[in-house]
Write a structure and sequence with these properties.
The chain has about 475 residues and is of the alpha/beta class. The chain is built from 15 helices and 9 strands. A 9-stranded mixed beta sheet has the order 1-2-3-5-4-6-7-8-9, with helices on both faces.
């Protein structure tokens, strides 16, 4: 390796306080090769990968390294919403490191050009894991921590990466907590029709009448959209900044609404949160209350959607700025992060199918394999390679895995894409009753259900076991 390529660059030595927690961090950067696997294509070209570090609890050279495998967004967002790591770090005398995923946040290898060809081709799971492996190896050397075990943590896509780090780099990673990690989606033959069905189940659990009312609202919208002046009427009902002028606009509105329901279900936490949007506690229950208490079903649907989109008290909504259609029907987010995730959804990560109005309460908004292939070819000039993802990241063939805990909440619409049955005794599986998307990774809260408290205690026990095994092997 070129001298200095893996060296750590300190950019900010002052503590930065986050809004969601009182835990400060040091913002640091490390030089990474843009291509870990081809010595010729980009030669010695490097970029600066950002990571966050907190060492106030660490017993140098002894305590473990708790390493968060950053996912599809700016790393401080995950720092703010993964309080479990900070809750237990003092007990373990752990060093805490959160690594930002290449092509997200501030870790753009080629700046604003990063999403143009050929640079975007360097965005892959393999390259990101390579970044994390180099960062860990460098930290261990420079901090005299070669005898310190590494435990990785991650939620959602980050949970997938946490598991993959144990799959691919067991020499570096002693154990992995993989929360809400839908790794089975990388199987070419995986079923993808569960997501919207499970969002619907979350609302049905509050009240079957809520689901019936949502279905009725969408039927009414369809009737309105086809009558003279109907698009203008819908534009007024949904307080749109720019009126709908075509059926394409109308279909985008339907996607905007469905996107809101996606996040209401995923973030159905028992207390208010600011993760991916400012939401009240039990937002699904709140939304159903609005839907059922409004005499106009369509207005009730608008009010439910507004819970997600209107945290700042806006007077009107720009549905094209709020929601970007992409290769992930569950949403890609906004800005550069959305472009990065869209590309990944067109290459290695095959996400759920569209809604069908048969097993779910949403309009028919299909997203089939042919639609995906056509979209990806048109948008990025690439064709998905599902068989490669299956071969490279094991898909459902994880019998040889070890020292991983896969946790899922039964309220999380992603849970059926993840591991819900242990493939062997070395892999733990935890199902959290009443838990939404990686609730167990959040900081402890007085309103936590008993199930998530138990899950965190189980995860702590696994971590203790992995650390003990690592030390016995030294």
């Amino acid at each position: 390796m070129k001298e200095g390529v893996a060296s750590i660059v300190v950019v900010c030595l002052t503590f930065i306080f986050t809004s969601a927690q009182t835990v400060p961090f040091k913002e640091l950067y490390i030089d990474q090769y843009v291509d870990h696997f081809n010595f010729v294509s980009y030669g010695e070209t490097i970029f600066k990968e950002r990571y966050l570090l907190q060492d106030q609890w660490w017993k140098p050279g002894v305590g473990p390294i708790f390493f968060y495998t950053g996912n599809e967004g700016s790393i401080e967002e995950f720092w703010d919403n993964t309080g479990f790591v900070f809750d237990i770090a003092p007990e373990f005398n752990a060093l805490v490191v959160f690594a930002e995923h290449r092509f997200y946040g501030k870790s753009l290898p080629f700046g604003n050009k990063s999403f143009s060809h050929p640079y975007v081709g360097l965005l892959s799971i393999e390259q990101a894991l390579g970044d994390y492996a180099v960062l860990l190896s460098t930290l261990k050397q420079e901090l005299n921590a070669t005898s310190c075990p590494v435990i990785t943590f991650g939620g959602s896509y980050g949970g997938m990466l946490s598991a993959y780090m144990r799959f691919k780099y067991p020499n570096l990673v002693a154990g992995s907590i993989a929360a809400s990690a839908p790794i089975f989606l990388l199987s070419a033959n995986s079923k993808r029709d569960f997501f919207w069905e499970d969002v619907t189940k979350d609302f049905n659990a509050v009240s079957p009448k809520c689901v019936d009312r949502v279905k009725k609202a969408f039927v009414m919208m369809d009737v309105i959209s086809k009558k003279p002046g109907g698009l203008k009427e819908l534009s007024t009902t949904f307080a749109l900044c720019k009126p709908l002028t075509s059926m394409n606009d109308y279909h985008h509105l339907l996607g905007w609404i469905r996107n809101a329901f996606t996040y209401l279900a995923m973030m159905d936490y028992p207390y208010p949160t600011s993760f991916m949007g400012n939401l009240p506690g039990y937002p699904v229950k709140v939304a159903c209350g609005m839907i059922l208490n409004n005499t106009d079903a369509v207005k009730g649907l608008y009010q439910a959607s507004e819970i997600f989109y209107n945290s700042t008290g806006r007077l009107c909504f720009d549905i094209w700025a709020d929601f970007i259609e992409c290769a992930d029907p569950t949403g890609c987010g906004l800005g550069f992060n959305s472009r990065a995730w869209d590309y990944q959804a067109c290459t290695e990560i095959h996400l759920p199918a569209g809604s069908n109005n048969i097993t779910d309460m949403f309009p028919v908004l299909p997203f089939t394999n042919p639609i995906r292939n056509q979209y990806c070819q048109k948008t990025w000039g690439v064709a998905p390679r599902d068989l490669w993802g299956q071969a490279q990241f094991w898909a459902e063939n994880i019998k040889s895995a070890s020292n991983i805990v896969f946790s899922n909440g039964d309220l999380d619409p992603w849970h059926r894409g993840g591991v819900t049955q242990a493939p062997n005794p070395s892999v733990g599986v935890i199902m959290i009753k009443g838990g939404a998307h990686h609730l167990d990774l959040r900081s402890k809260n007085k309103d936590d259900p008993a199930s998530v408290i138990q899950a965190r205690n189980q995860e702590k026990d696994y971590i203790k076991k992995w650390i003990a095994e690592f030390r016995q092997s030294q």
